[in-house]
Specification:
alpha+beta, 434 Repressor (Amino-terminal Domain), Cyanate Lyase, Chain: A, domain 2, 2 domains, 6 helices, 2 strands
């Protein structure tokens, strides 16, 4: 059993059993964003978390070990994503990436925002003109160091 197979079984079980990501996160005691990323193969779980995930999604015992393996993060099926929602996020970075880079450098100096020491939150903002998606990303600033 490999990580792709485990992820597919999780997705199938989620649909078949009406499981919500927020409920899985509550059971594991983590954020819905991080736990969902883990269930979709982008984070490694601890042994205890992996056992909980396997129980929630009714996975075979061998899935527990697979859920603990550090993943190949950021992998997509194509270089430019074709899923409309993921493509729009890609488009946002394509259009505003240079702006974000300039503003971060102006505020913090020469460096990067960590995707390792990172937090994310996805929320719904009700709006009379149509509900809006709020995505907050917060990563530790890591300055480049001379050597």
């Amino acid at each position: 059993m490999n990580r792709s197979e485990v992820t597919e079984r999780i997705k199938e079980s989620k649909i078949q059993n009406g499981i919500r990501w927020s409920d899985v996160a509550a059971a594991l005691g983590g954020s819905k964003e991080w736990v969902t990323a883990g269930c979709l193969g982008q984070m490694a779980f601890t042994a205890e978390q992996a056992a909980q995930v396997a129980a929630i999604f009714k996975l075979p015992h061998e899935a527990i070990a697979v859920l603990q393996v550090p993943p190949a993060r950021g992998t997509l099926d194509t270089p430019v994503p074709s899923d409309p929602l993921i493509y729009r996020l890609y488009e946002i970075v394509s259009v505003y990436g240079t702006t974000l880079k300039e503003l971060i450098h102006e505020e913090f100096g020469d460096g990067i925002m960590s995707a390792i020491d990172f937090r994310m939150e996805v929320v719904r903002h009700e709006d009379d003109a149509g509900d809006r998606v709020g995505i907050t990303m917060s990563g530790k600033f890591l300055p480049y160091k001379p050597y």
